[in-house]
Automatic annotation (TrEMBL):
Keyword set, alphabetical order: Disulfide bond, Hydrolase, Secreted, Serine esterase, Signal
Organism expressing this protein natively: Imshaugia aleurites
Sequence similarity: Belongs to the cutinase family.
Function: Catalyzes the hydrolysis of complex carboxylic polyesters found in the cell wall of plants. Degrades cutin, a macromolecule that forms the structure of the plant cuticle.
This protein's name: Cutinase
UniProt-listed Enzyme Commission number(s): 3.1.1.74
Length: 230
């Protein structure tokens, strides 16, 4: 069984965000920090429910379904989700985007078994809900760390018709790096993994690299922008 103790470092790091860290060398994919982040450093809502609250918010041209990492707060966390959404807002416009977090326990145990089964089902349910309730929306599916496991597992549970509504998939620090998404064209998928991030090699060791994906959120947002219309 995978060692448990290597992940306990998360408890002392996640939750105190934003984090100021040096750029990590040896990256597979990386962006540059958005100049807008300093303006938006107080815009770090860790709970987003704009799909489940669609009756009030209304359908948007783009619906982002995001699964947070292990032991992060709320349903979108703070390390990757909010900066990614802020960068999307800068490029696409907040009025064009609905953000929905995946509610699941995000426990260390869930990561160690390859992703929480309930979180996978919730991800699939949200994909089905977006496709049914907002048939014109373009779905962006995204997750960080264990959240990447959840979006892999959840997307594999939906029909080809629902998967066809997915315009982009973006995963960060993905333990399932290289695993395809069924019925999603690989050209629509972007994986951000630092070369020295052990989690991306499915090893339960959290180092500094795994906590620095904020540097990739501008590039990730630009990737999405190139695939959607609004």
């Amino acid at each position: 069984m995978k060692p448990f103790f290597c992940l306990t470092v998360l408890a002392s790091t996640i939750g105190a965000v934003p984090v100021s860290m040096p750029y990590a060398p040896g990256l597979d994919e990386t962006g540059t920090a958005s100049a807008s982040l300093s303006k938006r450093q107080d815009d770090w809502d860790v709970v987003r429910n704009e799909l489940t609250d669609v009756a009030r918010v209304g359908c948007k041209p783009i619906t982002v379904i995001f699964a947070r990492g292990t032991i992060e707060l709320g349903n979108v966390g703070s390390l990757v989700g909010p900066p990614f959404f802020n960068d999307l807002d800068d490029l696409i416009g907040a009025d064009n985007i609905a953000v929905q977090g995946v509610d699941y326990p995000a426990t260390i145990e869930g990561y160690l078994i390859g992703g929480d089964p309930g979180g996978a089902q919730t991800t699939a349910d949200l994909l089905n809900q977006a496709a049914t309730n907002c048939p014109g929306t373009q779905i962006v599916l995204s997750g960080y760390s264990q959240g990447a496991q959840e979006v892999h597992l959840g997307e594999a549970m939906v029909s080809a018709e629902v998967a066809a509504q997915i315009a982009a998939v973006v995963v960060f620090g993905d333990p399932f790096k290289g695993r395809p998404f069924p019925n999603v064209d690989p050209s629509l998928v972007k994986t951000y993994c630092f070369t020295d991030d052990f989690i991306c090699d499915d090893l339960p060791v959290v180092d500094t690299y795994h906590l620095e994906y904020i540097v990739d959120t501008p590039a990730a947002a630009a990737f999405v922008q190139g695939l959607v219309s609004y």
